[in-house]
TrEMBL record:
Name by which UniProt lists this protein: Interleukin-22 receptor subunit alpha-2
CC annotations in GO: extracellular region; plasma membrane
MF annotations from Gene Ontology: cytokine receptor activity
Similarity-based family: Belongs to the type II cytokine receptor family.
Organism of this sequence: Emberiza fucata
UniProt-listed SUPFAM superfamilies: Fibronectin type III (SSF49265)
Gene: Il22ra2
Source organism, top-level taxon: Eukaryota
Subcellular localization(s) per the UniProt record: Secreted
Length: 214
């Protein structure tokens, strides 16, 4: 039989880390090595760096899940946060496992833009929409990520006769509607786009491919 100290060590959460996309922020962790891991319950706290008291996250207090949504708790995007998780099994509590420091503005990942493609016989018009944050304006619409960062759209065109590697940067800038001209009729073209942040030299993933035959 495990002693209390061994049980505490065996259920202690591992690899506590923040994941964040467009300021949608969740805390993730891995279970300890206890065999009864499915019966373990987890308790999450958070605080801003420099505060002395930890806050309980009520919705993640005594949960069996390995993830906790902290979007609302990390809404001051310039502030540095910490979170910590402890586990309990059969009335025995582990010690706390601490995350690394997390500053949303520096560390959130930017998602790709939404892309709509309209073609005519020799050109493609590309309409771009920046990803949106979870935070809302007073009127209720979600605030786009372009409000928080100096972001550029990068639009790539792929001629389907050539291979996937021939991605040509057709446009970089802030325009939401761009026109790519002098294309060949009867050729299949695909458009992909991503967001680029010059200041931090970050890029989003590519949008899904939008293909069209002129």
């Amino acid at each position: 039989v495990l002693g209390n100290q061994d049980l505490q060590d065996s259920i202690k959460p591992q690899e506590v880390e923040f994941h964040s996309l467009n300021f949608n922020t969740t805390l993730h962790w891995q279970p300890g090595w206890a065999r009864e891991a499915r019966d373990v319950l987890y308790f999450v706290q958070y605080k801003v760096y420099g505060q002395s008291t930890w806050q309980n996250k009520d919705e993640c207090w005594g949960i069996s899940s390995l993830v906790c949504d902290l979007t609302h708790e990390t809404s001051d995007i310039q502030a540095p946060y910490y979170s910590r998780v402890r586990a309990a099994l059969a009335g025995v509590y582990s010690s706390w496992s601490l995350s690394c420091r997390f500053t949303p503005w520096r560390e959130t990942m930017i998602g790709p833009p939404m892309v709509t493609v309209v073609h005519s016989n020799k050109s493609i018009t590309v309409k771009l929409q920046a990803p949106r944050s979870p935070y809302r304006r007073k009127r209720g619409s979600k605030i786009p990520m372009t409000n928080y960062y100096d972001l550029l759209y990068q639009v790539f065109i792929i001629n389907n006769l050539l291979d996937e590697q021939h991605r040509v940067l057709a446009y970089e800038g802030k325009d939401k509607v761009i026109k790519i001209e002098d294309l060949r009729p009867g050729v299949s073209y695909c458009i992909m786009a991503k967001m680029y942040m010059p200041m931090l030299d970050h890029s989003s993933a590519y949008s899904s491919r939008q293909c069209t035959v002129l």
